[in-house]
């Protein structure tokens, strides 16, 4: 693997971690808190960021 590909993979790994953290934190807040609308947006946003990160990592072979 070239150094360029390794360097471009780092932002996608960060996106995957951020999206997973948002989903993990947003899920219990969605069910056990009265802020369901905001937690739903965070959960959906985290899932979208996670999928984009996975697709970017796959595309760049990271």
Task: Provide a descriptive summary of the structure in words.
- This protein has one domain (8-59).
- The longest helix has 30 residues, at 3-32.
- The chain is elongated and about 40 Å long.
- The mean pLDDT is 83.
- It contains two helices and no strands.
- With 62 residues, it is mainly alpha-helical.
- Keywords: Membrane, Transmembrane, Transmembrane helix.
- The chain crosses the membrane at residues 12-31, 37-59.
Detail the poorly predicted runs: none
Q: Strand content of the residues, in percent?
A: under 5%
So what's the overall shape? elongated
Topology as a string of helices (H) and strands (E)? HH
Distance between the termini: 9 Å
Radius of gyration from the CA trace?
14 Å
Q: Largest sheet at a glance?
A: none
Mean pLDDT rating: 83
Q: How many domains, in number, for the residues?
A: 1
Task: Please give the count of helices.
Answer: 2
The portion of residues assigned to helices is: over 70%
Structural class estimated from helices and strands: mainly alpha
| Count of DSSP strands | 0
């Amino acid at each position: 693997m070239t150094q360029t590909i390794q360097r471009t993979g780092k932002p996608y790994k960060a996106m995957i971690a951020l999206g997973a953290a948002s989903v993990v934190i947003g899920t219990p807040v969605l069910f056990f808190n009265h802020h369901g609308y905001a937690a739903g947006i965070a959960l959906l946003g985290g899932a979208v960021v996670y999928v984009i990160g996975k697709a970017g990592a796959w595309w760049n072979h990271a």
